[in-house]
Amino acid sequence: MPNRSIIAIIPARYASTRFPGKPLALIGGVPMIQRVYERVSAAKKVNELYVATDDRRIADVVEGIGGKVIMTSPSLKSGTDRCAFAARKLNADIIANIQGDEPLISPDVVDKAIGVLLKSPDTVMSTAAVPITDPWMLSSPGVVKVVLDKNCDALYFTRTAIPAVRDAGPEDYLKHFKYLKHLGIYIYRKEFLQKLTRLKETPLESAEKLEQLRVLENGYKIRVAIVDHDTISVDTPDDVRAVEKYLSEHAVGSDSKLKDGRSRRGKA
Fold first, then answer.
1. d(CA 57, CA 23)
2. Conformation bin of residue 5: beta by default, left when phi > 0, alpha when psi is -120 to 50
3. The domain at 6-262 falls in which architecture?
């Protein structure tokens, strides 16, 4: 297999509607964007790492720890658009989009999501999912679920519990089917990332508010790496406290595992 240039990009904007200044929120005294950057930098398959941001305050924190920054326009609508803009300035074969609100993201998850794309030359995009073992996650719309075909390509992403188990009540679903929680990481071939941002929003994407459905609705495949490291996504100040609680109870190193029973929500 030829060597590939793999660049990870962490999109981070200051003006979050639900949580303004979220990338700079302190988690145990450390800005969240710094925690994400340090976690992703430990991934073995990543050759370079950048933060794509529209805010000088975020850039200053990243540059203060020796990180690399690409400034983007505040008018860009999504993290995917921010990644695509940054990628146009970089010489890379593969772009890894790591959500900037995943302070517990495992480097191993990053490597495995990249790995399944490298092994699938006809696949344009990959992501990761972790088995669900806690029943409350099935009914939570904040936890995004994914169902796969026999090749581990995504059939559908949803905020509801699918498939429905005909002969069991929802409380017993986990006894009959292996449900998967989708994690907030996307790996693209560089040319496909640019194409994706030119595709219009699709009906299922609009209904579920899940951008990855645009890929499936346009007939492309998303290969999914099944991993065993969960995360706690930070969408609100309460999530910051959940991460701090977890950190106070566990030593989180590059190979540490977060069990899904402690995760409060999934990332769309």
1. 10
2. beta
3. Alpha-Beta Complex (3.90)
Q: Which residues pair with 33 in a beta bridge?
A: none
Q: Where are the domains of the chain?
A: 6-262
Full-model pTM: 0.90
**Half-sphere exposure of 241 toward its Cβ, with a 13 Å CA cutoff?**
3
Question: What pLDDT does residue 44 have?
Answer: 97
How deeply is 6 buried, as exposed, middle or buried, from its count of CB atoms within 10 A (0-12, 13-18, 19+)? buried
Residue pair 102/267 in contact by the 8 Å Cβ criterion? yes
Number of other residues whose CB lies within 10 A of the CB of residue 206: 11
- What would the mean pLDDT of 120-134 be, rounded to a whole number? 96
Burial 63-73 (b: 16+ CB within 10 A, else e): eeeebebbebe
pLDDT digits (tens, 9 = 90+) for 54-86: 999 999 999 999 999 999 999 998 999 999 999
Q: Where are the alpha helices (DSSP H) in the chain?
A: 32-41, 56-64, 79-87, 107-118, 136-139, 190-198, 203-208, 212-217, 237-249
Q: Is 183 exposed, middle or buried (0-12, 13-18, 19+ CB in 10 A)?
A: buried
